[in-house]
Specification:
There is one protein chain. The chain is of the alpha/beta class and 644 residues long. It folds into five domains: 4-86; 109-186; 187-368, Histidine kinase-like ATPase, C-terminal domain (Heat Shock Protein 90, 2-Layer Sandwich); 374-502, OB fold (Dihydrolipoamide Acetyltransferase, E2P) (Beta Barrel), CATH 2.40.50.180; 521-642, 3-Layer(aba) Sandwich (Rossmann fold). It is 45% helix and 22% strand. The protein is built from 20 helices and 25 strands. Strands 8, 9, 16, 17, 18, 19 and 20 form a seven-stranded mixed sheet that branches. Strands 10-14-15-13-12-11 form a six-stranded mixed sheet. The protein has a five-stranded mixed sheet with strand order 2-4-5-7-6. A hairpin with a 2-residue loop joins strand 8 and strand 9. Helix 1 (4-25) runs antiparallel to helix 2. The chain is globular. It starts with a helix and ends in a 7-residue tail after the last helix.
């Protein structure tokens, strides 16, 4: 059975696709019609894989109407039917998703005027620099005979002028960056207000009296952070009202006030913002989690008894976990806690849970205030440059000043009063282990790790950029940053720590053991983020390590750079579809024998026959998608012992 949280998430995706289709149809041209058709087809697949056959039928009807060229009124009627089917917030019920004004930034006129002035000053400096370059060129053309003293005099003057221009340009650029950062900042109140409204609406629908307390602390964050955190926080608020706040009779029996409380808090410390969603509800019972894990076969009774409280609560963040037998109309809407964690950590943030059974629960999230001009610690390994967020770095030193010893087959280093395991970052990234010249120590999720690198570079503030699409889902890479005119990979300290925890204790010194060999590595290829989320969750639940690609072209790039045990691909995708991807996989000697499972909305015999001709090992239609069916296919095509 598909995790119910994903069928809830479908609502937001469907409404966005309906908006996109309307926008495309408002424009003339076959390319816009083709895009509208693709959106309808993708929605059909998303509805089927999340168990909403009614929505899939409506999307199929819309797709057929678009292909026939039906009248505008007929198309609009089908779009409206889709909105109704997924619960469009026409009257503002509990299903409503808060609006975070994604399309607009409100900007003071004075800020625009200040930016315009700064750009004009920079333009003037650029012209002055160009003039200086022309003078240098003319000086180089002068015959040196009899003009050496004149050369020296002019060179001294030009050198002084160049230094002045460089200083002034650096100053003006710094001011412009500061102004742009401020322009992107928005008050946390913009996020908390709709969250509070959503909490009250849900409580009203569930018949639970509720007070929502809001304390934003006057905090402001970057618009991109605000948008990214909105959906994870909404999920936590829904959980607080549905899972946390008890019905009236239960609250009275526990001696609590009839009116429950949900508290939204924010506080800012330097470059980090702390966000809290707390409730005074039932709290979380670790024993209920133990029972759920034993019932579904994830743990034995002995394992459940042996795990401490923190290890048990950590299971809430595992894919598709729930202590309820079935979801309510509200519970689990939007995201599962595993995806809440993934999206928070993708920003460089953290999530922590505090709960007392019978008294309440608090989720504490941290996130960077801004993703623009973040300070990073660059390092060099095997001629390539990488970086870590400065907030993840707790110490760094040249190797010559450190003492390295061995214990139980692992390298140990003492750095700034810390005794840490030492791993070779170059080997982790695919290189050969060797002596390196420096060490950087990282902290994440309460653990610390030392990495051997070739060279430490100066800490610098730089601009973080999103990953190219073909890198989406790559756990070790957080983002790219601009450094000395080129892009440098920003590595994720948390993923390095997780891999270290999974590493064998008998690893060689100064090296990092690879992830557990028995866990098959699967590449999921689909242009729908929702579909990828469903598949990643199901595969991780089955014990797989998963990477993602948004289409066939990106998948080929990943296959050329990494090793996988199986590919799970959609057919209909832009740029390079699944059938073309399959053909390229079979035509490449390195991947010719790689198992490929086709997952598609298209159950027509012609498509399946074509997939079979090209060498697909199996296929699964999205309408028939079940985790147990996926497990059977995995067991047939990868090591069966690795699939649980």
């Amino acid at each position: 059975m598909v995790d119910p949280t994903f069928s809830r998430q479908l609502r937001e995706v469907a409404l966005e696709r309906v908006r996109t289709i309307r926008g495309r149809l408002a424009r003339a041209g076959p390319e816009h019609l083709a895009e509208a058709l693709r959106e309808a087809h993708t929605l059909k697949g998303e509805a089927r894989i999340t168990g909403r056959g009614d929505v899939a039928t409506l999307a199929h009807d819309l797709e057929a109407a678009l292909e026939r060229g039906d009248a505008e009124e007929a198309i609009e009627a089908r779009l409206h039917a889709l909105e109704v089917a997924v619960g469009a917030p026409v009257t503002g019920g509990a299903a409503a998703h808060p609006s975070f004004e994604h399309a607009l930034l409100r900007v003071e006129l004075s800020q625009v005027a200040e930016l315009t002035r700064a750009c004009s000053e920079l333009r003037a400096l650029v012209r002055a620099t160009a003039s200086l370059a022309r003078e240098l060129a003319s000086l180089a053309a002068v015959d040196e005979h009899g003009a050496r003293e004149e050369h020296r005099r002019r060179l001294r003057g030009l050198s002084r002028r160049a230094r002045e221009l460089a200083f002034e340009q650096d100053h003006r650029t710094t001011v412009l960056e500061r102004d742009l950062r401020e322009l992107r900042m928005l008050p946390i109140a913009r996020l908390f207000e709709p969250l509070a409204l959503a909490a009250r609406q849900i409580a009203g629908d569930l018949g639970k009296p509720l007070e929502v307390l809001v304390d934003d602390g006057g905090s402001t964050v970057d618009r991109q952070v605000l948008d990214t955190m909105s959906e994870p926080l909404l999920h936590l608020v829904r959980n607080a009202v549905d899972h946390g706040i008890e019905p009236i009779d239960e609250r009275l029996a526990r001696g609590k006030p009839v009116v429950g409380t949900v508290h939204l808090r924010a506080s800012q410390a330097g470059r980090t913002v702390r966000l809290e969603v707390a409730d005074d509800g039932a709290g979380i019972d670790p024993d209920a989690i133990r029972r759920a894990l034993v019932e579904r076969g994830a743990w034995t009774s002995e394992q459940a008894r042996a795990r401490d409280r923190e290890a048990v609560l950590a299971q809430l963040f595992e894919p598709a976990f729930s202590t309820r037998g079935e979801a309510s109309e509200v519970s689990g809407r939007g995201l599962g806690l595993d995806i809440v964690r993934r999206r928070t950590e993708a920003l460089g943030g953290t999530i922590r849970l505090e709960t007392t059974h019978g008294e309440g629960t608090r989720f504490i999230l941290t996130a960077p205030v801004s993703l623009v001009a973040d300070p990073v610690v660059p390092v060099e390994v095997d001629g390539a440059r990488y970086a870590f967020a400065s907030s993840d770095v707790v110490a760094m030193s040249e190797r010559s000043s450190l003492e390295v010893t061995r214990a139980a087959g692992t390298a140990i280093v003492r750095i700034e009063e810390r005794t840490l395991s030492l791993c070779d970052l170059g080997e982790l990234l695919g290189g050969e282990p060797r002596e390196r010249g420096a060490v950087v120590a990282l902290r994440a999720d309460g653990d610390e790790l030392a990495l051997a690198v070739d060279r430490l570079l100066p800490v610098t503030a730089t601009v973080r950029q999103g990953l190219d699409p073909f890198l989406e889902g790559l756990a070790l890479v957080r983002a790219t940053v601009a450094l000395d005119g080129r892009l440098v990979t920003l590595l994720d300290a948390r993923e390095l720590l997780r891999r270290t925890r999974r590493a064998s204790p008998s690893s060689a010194p100064a090296s990092l053991a690879p992830p557990v060999a028995s866990a098959p590595r699967v590449l999921v290829v689909d242009d729908s983020e929702l579909t990828r989320d469903v598949l990643v969750s199901a595969l991780e639940q089955l014990g797989c390590r998963v990477a993602e690609a948004v289409n066939g072209a990106r998948a080929l790039e990943r296959l050329a750079a990494e090793r996988f045990d199986l590919v799970l691909t959609d057919i209909d995708m832009p740029e390079l579809d699944g059938l073309a991807l399959l053909a390229r996989i079979r035509a490449t000697p390195q991947t010719a024998r790689l198992p490929v499972i086709v997952l598609t909305t298209r159950a027509e015999g012609s498509f399946l026959a074509r997939a079979s001709e090209l060498g697909a090992d199996a296929y699964l239609t999205k309408a028939e998608f079940r985790t147990d069916a996926l497990a059977r296919l995995l067991a047939m095509h990868v090591d069966a012992e690795a699939v649980r």
